[in-house]
Amino acid sequence: MTSHILTDNSNVSRLANHPIVKNLVNKDLSLLSKENFLIFPQQLSESYDLDNDNVIFHQKNDAIWTGNVVGIIGDGTSDIRINSRFTKEGQQDFFLRYMMQQVLHYNVVDSKNITSQEISYYDLLLFLFPYYLNEALRKGTYKEYVKKSYNDSNVKGPIEIASHIRKNLPFVGKIAYTTREFNYDNQMTELIRHTIEKIQQEKEFLLTDNENTKENVRTIKSMTASYNRLDREIIIQKNILNPVKSGYFEEYALLQRLCLKILTEEKTGFGDDENQIHGIIIDVAWLWEEYIWKITQWHHYGRKAELDTLGLFSQPINDNQQHRYPDFAFRGIPIDTKYKRNIDKRNDYNQIITYLHIMASQKGGFLQPTDVENDKGLTVLGELFGGGELFSYKFFIPQEYSNYEDFVLQIRNSEKALKVLSL
Q1: Closest C-alpha among 415, 419, 404 to residue 107
Q2: Whether the Cβ atoms of residue 250 and residue 34 lie closer than 8 Å to each other
Q3: Distance (Å, rounded) from C-alpha 403 to C-alpha 382?
Q4: CA-to-CA distance for 201 and 247, rounded, in angstroms?
Q5: Tens-digit pLDDT profile for residues 70-103
Q6: SS3 307
Q7: SS3 of 3, please?
Q8: What is the mean pLDDT of residues 39-43?
Q9: Which InterPro entries does the record match to this protein (predicted)?
């Protein structure tokens, strides 16, 4: 299998004729999420900072570019890995790994958890499992109708004639029958249980470094009393044939897909159909924003129900309130995280000026990653007519390091500098 390594927000025209690129150029992620792609975060509505209509590859001025996405894509004959643009040539993508570990709440620097190999497709599946598990169980434990067989005198369903004859002749007062009952121990929760058991054998730290994850693992284990390691293939087949379809349980549908990929050891992730493209796509702009929230704990705005929004109107007419979503507020100053290379001096400026006005702030600015050490820190972009100031803060991503532990030590210096930011 041939492999190609690309980076986000980069010109990739050299692969313009590659079958995967040709198939995916300008193809919306919302369509791919319905196919054999795993797209993270699972709710595209949470990911509203993707540019170019949520695509992996977009065409611009006769050139093809990657956007704010990273991941692994393949078609059975070749694969394409999109790393963060802060990955040194020939090196692992330590920046992506570090952000994922921060946002997904598992141990970052313990050397026993770090391999010398590049994160594989299969590794990504395992790393994402706790997030998908926790999101699903926020809806409560999944339950569904399960067929149960009984043999007693309290008949509650159809009699099983063959079973009754086999068990109860001569007649002793019992009748064999079946019922359909709501049950937490079902094919879905059993699938999750089998996945948990597999991960515990391979990367147990993923399930033990976060209290929420540990509690949800305990919940699944307590609900699956009928678990048997020897039933794994049966459980897999039942779930393949019976995908979760309820819109209310969308999180479980996504978790089900992930579990099946893990349990079938889809280490390449691209199946047997050479014409069908599969992969994992991660919105790295969303990951960058969540990472900044993790390390700063600034006031966070957004479309999620638990996050605040800004109302555009002080007194909306006919409840026609319009909502705006700055990423963060720091001491009353709006700050938008931007992962892309360049700030749009029209749309991005207009956006931050809107936030500045609504919040009655004298300042507003952008927070971007940079790999140029001389470019790091705070820069004033300019004074606004009518008052106010726009600024940019460049967060330095280490480029000279000996190993992952060294990278972590250096990036934590960048975090410390951001935390003591004085505006």
Answers
A1: 404
A2: no
A3: 39
A4: 33
A5: 999 988 788 899 999 999 877 789 999 899 989 9
A6: coil
A7: strand
A8: 77
A9: McrC (IPR019292)
pLDDT at 310: 72
Burial class for 405, CB neighbours closer than 10 Å (0-12, 13-18, 19+)? middle
pLDDT for the residue 46: 47
Structure tokens that stand for 269 in this block: 């992730």
Which residue, 378, 366, 375, 371, is CA-closest to 417?
378
Nearest 5 degrees, angle CA 153-CA 177-CA 237?
A: 145
d(CA 351, CA 312): 12
Report d(CA 1, CA 75) in Å as an integer: 10
Give the span between the Cα atoms of 146 and 151, in whole angstroms.
Answer: 17
Q: How far is it, in rounded angstroms, from Cα 408 to Cα 394?
A: 18
Instruction: Report the length, in residues, of the chain.
Output: 423
Token duo for residue 299: 């006031």
Contact 257, 239 (CB under 8 A): no
144 beta partners: 183
The answer to whether the CB of 330 falls within 8 A of the CB of 367 is no
Model confidence pLDDT, tens digit, residues 165-208: 677 777 667 877 677 666 788 999 999 999 999 999 998 989 98
